[in-house]
Amino acid sequence: MLSEKQKLDTLMVLGIELNRIHDLDILLERVLTRARQFVHADAGTIYIREDQHLRFAHSQNDTLQRKLPSGEKLIYSTYTLPIDSTSIAGYAAATGKMLSIPDVYTLSTSKQYRFSKKFDQASGYVTRSMLTIPLTSSKKEALGILQIINAQDHEKRIRAFSRSDEKVMLHFAGIASVALERAQMTRAMILRMIRMAEMRDPGETGAHVNRVAEISLEIYEAWARKHNIDQKEIDKTRDALRMGAMLHDVGKVAISDLILKKTTRLSPDEYNIMKQHTIHGARLFSNLQSDYDEAAAVIALNHHEKWNGSGYPGHVDPVSGAPLPGYENHASGKKGEEIPILGRIVAIADVFDALRSQRCYKAPWDEQRSVEAIIQGAGTHFDPELVKIFLDRMPVIRAIQIRYADNNENDPAE
Ligand code: C2E
Ligand code: SIN
Ligand code: SIN
Ligand code: SIN
Ligand code: FE
Ligand code: FE
């Protein structure tokens, strides 16, 4: 067991780690993982406040996870709870108080809040001890709830949370809240940029870009595992990819409405202008202030390259748009592994989601037809190895489409 001093030192290091993460979803995942490690808890959930509700935002459960084949993910359905005294999480958010419950099944009937057995009944899991901690903004407003479930002793027996757990988790919640508030601000800023693009191009919605980002992450994680990429590198790339993928098409803001909103096929000249959105996008991030700008620039520039070299914009300087030295005279498309991996990944996620979606120039395609188009593109448009990974991940991709459905932008920063 760690001493109090060691715990505080660890908390400081965690604060630094959490503040390096830019993306909101990646942050929620890391906060929950670290909180659970601290107190040896089997499971947990983070809820994010949206007006008068808490939205179920992220969940982990080691026991249920172990029952899945490796690399598979638990698929949770998202739901909301009112911020009032009827649920445990709602009560903690309404009152700002931490709740430590040794056994949720023997909760005193004198309490206003009730434990909902729905999740246990649906999953076969047994929730016992539960520590529910409010996450609070610098203005003392509720940001969300961190709920840690089933603390374990050294023999992995479920135990109640101790006083020391409660104390350390209160500190941790303070650190996590600072990081959370910042990541929500960044996410809100990105969605604002996307809303500007959406005013121009009705296809480029918050829901579409979230789906493209989440599908891209799925493909990247499986690819990175297969290629034994170091975990630190994976974590860093996931963060940058989650945000860069959302911004893959922001360069469309520079394209005229006459082209963007055209309901029929583009003429060759119009299509050539349209192709410039890749360069406009890359230029927006060309200052390269952070890893995340660099990934965003790479993705904007390369998401329309094709595996067989027939894509665009090819070997060009992203700032001037001019062909790079040595590429002035021949067809310029990048080919195969010349295309950065993040560009190859987002290409699949973007085309799949564009096909599944309504566009001003096309009706949505059904899943089968869209999947067939991706399979057709393996080796010509897309990296065939990534197409295989994409097909393997279809169950998770369907869950992403439900979570980020078009009528439900589902963003906690909103
Ligand atoms: P987008 O609508 O986001 O589409 C992204 C990519 O998905 C397209 O890249 C293309 O590879 C694929 N895609 C989308 N719809 C279809 C389709 O109906 N059939 C096939 N086979 N593939 C499809 P692409 O072609 O480079 O286009 C880039 C962007 O240019 C599109 O982004 C869209 O904003 C615009 N665009 C392309 N074609 C047209 C068009 O005929 N009319 C209008 N108004 N815009 C178009
Ligand atoms: C609650 O906090 O009441 C919701 C969590 C659960 O029921 O498992
Ligand atoms: C991280 O370390 O997780 C992110 C680093 C960065 O994107 O700057
Ligand atoms: C276009 O119509 O030029 C783009 C859609 C497609 O690839 O068919
Ligand atoms: Fe694009
Ligand atoms: Fe797109």
Structural descriptors:
16 helices, binds fe (iii) ion, 414 residues, elongated, Hypothetical protein af1432, binds ligand C2E
Give a topology summary.
Layout lengths: L3 H17 L3 H16 L1 E10 L2 E9 H5 L13 E3 L5 H8 L3 E3 L16 H6 L6 E7 L5 E11 L5 E2 L3 H38 L5 H21 L4 H16 L10 H4 L7 H8 L1 H8 L6 H12 L38 H16 L10 H11 L6 H9 L1 H10 L11
Helix pairs in contact: 1-6, 2-6, 7-8, 7-13, 7-16, 8-12, 11-12, 12-13, 13-14
Bound molecules: ligand C2E, succinic acid (SIN) (3 copies) and fe (iii) ion (2 copies).
The site of ligand C2E has 14 residues, from helix 13.
Output the structural class. alpha+beta
- How many domain units? 2
Instruction: Tell me the CATH architecture of the largest domain.
Output: Orthogonal Bundle
Radius of gyration: 23 Å
Report mean pLDDT, rounded to a whole number: 91
Query: What sort of overall outline do the alpha carbons produce when their principal axes are compared?
Result: elongated
CATH homologous superfamily (4th level) name of the largest domain: Hypothetical protein af1432
Write down the CATH topology of the largest domain: Hypothetical protein af1432
Output the helix-strand order: HHEEHEHEHEEEHHHHHHHHHHH
CATH C-level category of the largest domain: Mainly Alpha
